[in-house]
Amino acid sequence: xxxxxxxxxxxxxxxxxxxxxxxxxxxxxxxxxxxxxxxxxxxxxxxxxxxxxxxxxxxxxxxxxxxxxxxxxxxxxxxxxxxxxxxxxxxxxxxxxxxxxxxxxxxxxxxxxxxxxxxxxxxxxxxxxxxxxxxxxxxxxxxxxxxxxxxxxxxxxxxxxxxxxxxxxxxxxxxxxxxxxxxxxxxxxxxxxxxxxxxxxxxxxxxxxxxxxxxxxxxxxxxxxxxxxxxxxxxxxxxxxxxxxxxxxxxxxxxxxxxxxxxxxxxxxxxxxxxxxxxxxxxxxxxxxxxxxxxxxxxxxxxxxxxxxxxxxxxxxxxxxxxxxxxxxxxxxxxxxxxxxxxxxxxxxxxxxxxxxxxxxxxxxxxxxxxxxxxxxxxxxxxxxxxxxxxxxxxxxxxxxxxxxxxxxxxxxxxxxxxxxxxxxxxxxxxxxxxxxxxxxxxxxxxxxxxxxxxxxxxxxxxxxxxxxxxxxxxxxxxxxxxxxxxxxxxxxxxxxxxxxxxxxxxxxxxxxxxxxxxxxxxxxxxxxxxxxxxxxxxxxxxxxxxxxxxxxxxxxx
Amino acid sequence: xxxxxxxxxxxxxxxxxxxxxxxxxxxxxxxxxxxxxxxxxxxxxxxxxxxxxxxxxxxxxxxxxxxxxxxxxxxxxxxxxxxxxxxxxxxxxxxxxxxxxxxxxxxxxxxxxxxxxxxxxxxxxxxxxxxxxxxxxxxxxxxxxxxxxxxxxxxxxxxxxxxxxxxxxxxxxxxxxxxxxxxxx
Lengths: 558, 185
Ligand SMILES: Cc1ncc(C[n+]2csc(CCOP(=O)(O)OP(=O)(O)O)c2C)c(N)n1
What we know:
The structure holds two protein chains of two kinds.
Chain A: H1 3-13, E1 18-21, H2 28-37, E2 40-43, H3 47-61, E3 65-69, H4 73-76, H5 79-87, E4 92-98, H6 114-118, E5 124-127, H7 134-146, E6 152-158, H8 187-199, E7 203-207, H9 209-213, H10 217-224, E8 231-233, E9 248-251, H11 258-266, E10 269-273, H12 279-282, E11 293-298, E12 312-315, H13 318-332, H14 340-352, H15 367-377, E13 383-386, H16 390-398, E14 407-408, H17 419-429, E15 435-440, H18 441-444, H19 451-457, E16 461-467, H20 472-481, H21 497-503, E17 507-511, H22 517-526, E18 531-536
Parallel strand pairs in A: 1-2, 1-3, 3-4, 4-6, 5-6, 7-8, 7-10, 8-9, 10-11, 11-12, 13-14, 13-15, 15-16, 16-18, 17-18
Helix pairs in contact in A: 1-2, 1-7, 3-5, 3-17, 8-13, 10-13, 15-16, 15-22
Chain B: H1 12-18, E1 26-34, H2 39-50, E2 54-61, E3 67-75, H3 81-89, E4 94-100, E5 105-115, H4 119-131, E6 135-139, E7 144-150, H5 152-162, E8 167-172, E9 176-179
The complex binds thiamine diphosphate.
Thiamine diphosphate binds at residues 387-391, 414-417, 440-443, 466, 468, 470-474 of chain A.
GO biological process, one term (chain A): L-valine biosynthetic process
EC number (chain A): 2.2.1.6
Domain Thiamine pyrophosphate enzyme central (chain A): 190-325
């Protein structure tokens, strides 16, 4: 069969049911193979949209996402989603077309050294050198993307090689001698961690996105509730532990709750699970959790002691390790009363500094109120994608995630334009769920061409724009740190999003009334198919509380 | 949002103080890699991206045609060496890494020196060469090329002695290293 037909066979063997992509000269053979392959292909309107859609699919389903692009500009348009997937450890296989082998290195038409361009942004990458290696490389690619610390991989296929007639035999096992992720977790270290936890008087569990990629939420919950451990999650970890739970302190970090950040600050032991001590979490590193010892559980050994020295490192799969840790911990029968004082201290913070905002009786809709209304209107059960900015932080603060894989956002790279296409991927992967995208007027304009994709395919994404007419988060920083000198943050003539949606054949709804917000949202979300909802919100509202960049947790403001 | 967010001006001194500083401790990493295209780029790229500084880098075949050995010396940046090795381990074509202890390691470098020496000076240069167990590989009326192998220290002291005679050019390969005793490097 043609090598491209072998590509299709590999995709099927890997259980791929949908790919997101965009054709061009160099991947024409691949697109020809789609005609008979029986694999769903969603034609996006920009390769970046396809890449983020594959991420949204992967994040929401736990499966590997697949995105396709042609050579040159098609491939370079994928760079942002590739980096995004790298930063958030999302398993995506990116397949790019490449110019004919005889043209390689000649600056041929639509040639780009995509392997070179993406090398710092991938978990691994391959350029096909010989058509016979196609099946093996593709299976290796899926294996590498999915296992260990998940991540993006790139497979670049020169167009001439993809047309060659090759014998196809299914590849059953992958052998990569230099790639053997540790999954088990050292028993001695787990025991040591259990002992440290049993002895600590002010412990905090700090969970990140790794808990969700590892599918370890149930184990995490069991571990946390095996005693009264206080727990906080990162932006990417939200939903890894049920938010309404009494042991939940809220999110931590730059826009986390005071309770979570103060608890980290005063903790004597911090148990980090699948979290990487990002600077948005630690603030000023030298003043981060100054009294704490650290247990660090992570699948990636390079994360251990990268930013914060770990006293007890445990490398391996979080699900596996937490399972064992619970047993070890239970066997120790720790003193039940020792956390009383700690909880009193935490309780006092919770009482004094609840998450809140002032909502005057004027007509304006506060963005925080809008998120609360979205929560109510969806019964708290939607898959929520967000973009990047203030709306993202409000969504994180006021939509209470109680399950994993319900909150998709670009945490590591902070990519505006992620939300809408990611929602497309999530909706394609989860046809029975309500998928909303909480976005800003700025972010939405970064990938709104995908309105054509949702329209054509009737993908029922509900785009909810918190429209403040500003690049709100940047405006907030200019207000707080640059003496109100606003520069290039007023979005000026924002398009009429309702008309825009309608131009694409998508329903558009404008919401300006505060008193009926929940009902209006409910009605808008209930519209069959894709919908764009433009919600006018207070123009100059800030996200609080906040740890200023480079400051310490104790110096939280707002 | 990017960093730093605040408008305070940094002084150049502060910036320099926050940067990397050479610790003086040299590490010799011996890295076995799959003999595949792009491996060296991945290694070099990783060092550049993480801000680790490479002092010397040599690559050569091993007894297994699928495997090459990279010998790499780094001067201890602020980054602890185990961060360097852990990051390297994440590269899928990297098979094995050893941070060789200087005391347990034999290291060698090859250097070629071209010296513009004639007459009396030439005799002196040849004498030096003999003391350092170098070899003469080319002689013309006005210049001579010497070859020397040895530790970096030895090559450097040879160089400083030769320099006054009129050193035209010098080529050095960078170090290769092997651990002492029977065990594999
Ligand atoms: C691609 C990209 N460019 C620039 C930024 C910097 N940035 C971070 S937040 C933000 C403003 C976002 O505005 P909007 O989407 O309207 O959301 P709001 O903050 O108003 O809720 C910008 C420009 C970014 N994160 N991503």
